[in-house]
Recover the amino acids of this structure.
């Protein structure tokens, strides 16, 4: 006790106790803040999932089933992940009135918050591809345009056209144009494989290669046309045929006109 009293009377005892008290308070505050933040995050996620469930029941369950189990006219959504929902709903493809036709891009029905809630609800049903974050979509920094162009021509050009303008498929289907599509939605399409499109997993095309493809698509979108009318950039064969038909038609018209003038 005498030794302890001696330490208490030491001139450094006061500052040391103050430092210890501040450290204890700071640590306690940090732990409490982290706990509160984590709890709030869980509550926010639960609220978002519940909101998404209500939106789903009102706008999606008539086709996809009350528990997203699917039906004869629409597939199951269990395991498709948040990325698939964000792509389909964020591009306006869903909801759609006629499930027998190909879903096309159009003005979306739900806003960003409602789309995020729907995605959170579907993601809560079973694991699936997640929505890529901003840090995963920095194609300007992490992408290589030349590599992306080669990858696009090898994997995508047979459907989407060598310039990303889209093209016809079998059985009345088509591959949509990639011009004007958000990078996030391009990435989501590659990892979810909507409709006739195959899934390009990270083993098939790495995340860095996906960013390179997006960078090339955006470069093609912004590329100015220095050679006159683009005619949709649908390819040299079609463009040449159009020029040949118009040129031949013009020559025939001139020949007919000269013949009538000669009479």
């Amino acid at each position: 006790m005498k030794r302890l009293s001696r330490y208490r009377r030491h001139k450094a005892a006061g500052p040391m106790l103050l430092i210890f008290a501040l450290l204890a308070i700071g640590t306690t505050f940090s732990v409490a803040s982290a706990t509160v933040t984590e709890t709030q995050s869980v509550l926010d996620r639960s609220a978002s999932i519940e909101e998404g469930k209500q939106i789903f029941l009102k706008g999606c369950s008539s086709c996809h089933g009350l528990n997203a189990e699917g039906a004869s006219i629409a597939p199951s959504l269990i395991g498709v992940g948040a990325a698939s929902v964000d792509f389909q709903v964020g591009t306006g493809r869903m909801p759609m009135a006629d499930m027998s036709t190909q879903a096309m891009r159009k003005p979306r029905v739900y806003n960003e918050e409602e789309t995020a809630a729907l995605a959170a609800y579907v993601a809560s049903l079973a694991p699936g591809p997640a929505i890529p974050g901003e840090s995963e979509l920095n194609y300007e920094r992490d992408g290589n345009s030349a590599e992306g162009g080669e990858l696009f021509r090898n994997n995508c050009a047979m459907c989407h056209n060598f310039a990303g303008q889209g093209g016809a498929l079998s059985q009345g289907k088509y591959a949509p144009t990639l011009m004007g599509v958000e990078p996030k939605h391009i990435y989501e399409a590659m990892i979810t494989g909507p409709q006739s499109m195959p899934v390009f997993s990270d083993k098939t095309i790495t995340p860095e290669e996906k960013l390179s493809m997006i960078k090339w698509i955006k470069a093609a979108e912004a590329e100015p046309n220095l050679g006159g009318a683009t005619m949709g950039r649908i390819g040299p064969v079609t463009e040449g045929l159009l020029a040949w038909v118009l040129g031949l038609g013009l020559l025939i018209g001139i020949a007919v006109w000269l013949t009538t003038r000669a009479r």
